Amino acid sequence: MNEKKYFPQTGDKTPFKVPEGYFEGLSARLDQLIDLGADTDDAIVTERPRLSMWMDKYRPIFYLAAMFVLLLFSVSTLLKLTSSDKTADKLTKETSTTNTIEVTAEDYLISQIGTYGIAEYYVDPEIYD
Amino acid sequence: MPFDVQRLNSQSMDKQQETELLTKLTDERQRKGAFETLVNTFSESLYWQIRKMVLNHDDANDVLQNTLIKVWSNIDQFRGESRLSTWLFRIAINETYTFLNKERQRNQTSMTDLEDVMVQRLQSDPYFSGDEAVVLLQKAILSLPDKQRLVFNMKYYDEMKYEEMSEILGTSVGALKASYHHAVKKIEAFLQLENGTD
Known about the structure:
The structure holds two protein chains of two kinds.
Chain A: H1 22-47, H2 50-123
Chain B: H1 5-11, H2 15-26, H3 31-54, H4 57-74, H5 84-108, H6 114-124, H7 132-142, H8 146-157, H9 162-169, H10 173-195
Helix pairs in contact in B: 2-3, 3-4, 3-5, 4-5, 6-7, 7-10, 8-10
């Protein structure tokens, strides 16, 4: 592709320069940076409070554990509420069933012989023999 | 002096020399000296590759330093599956992309295009000697996506072979040829539009 005929003719294609002696001093500057980097890392480790470092490291695990405990508490509360509702229902049902039986037996007796009949039975039982 | 593949090949090492350097780099006692050799051998080539992407000398200096510090910290992870020079170029390219993305994010808040900011910085850079035509060409190159810009720089300025580019960028030769072709067309269209010619 003959792209160069369209592009500016500038002699040296790249018009960029670097400061005098830039590459010669690069290695020494890098050495300084590397040494400084190591010192800075050490300083950070010693300067920071132990608790913060520990907290920083395990913070996600703490959050996860807290969420799990919260979830567990919610579920257990929900389950307790549901089971106490069921117990209450059961008790109510049992009570109501017992009451119903008593009422039904009495009703049944009355329906069979009637209140007048009962009185008659106690006054003169021979009527029913 | 700009990056030149021929010069890089003559300056850089053959496989035997690379292996020796790597052995020294992994040896605690010889590490510093070997790293100095690495910096002296490759830093100039890496610098020009970075400079053509970030344009400004100060930014190029920052990215090059980050690249070489990363090399220093990660030399143990180099498994020798590629040439040392290829690995260095890849790190330099990744660092350049990281820098450009960060700059893009930083400029999002100021509602200014990074490309405009870069052109302004280039024009005020004391280590730039281009005239208006060169600035316009840089504007045109800046209008390309990052990877296409990199391909264009490697081919147009460095006259790098597609096979070498393919090894560094991990892209097929065909895709690189197509990318360069599109880049040239876009730059031509940009220049024609700016110059008001057909």
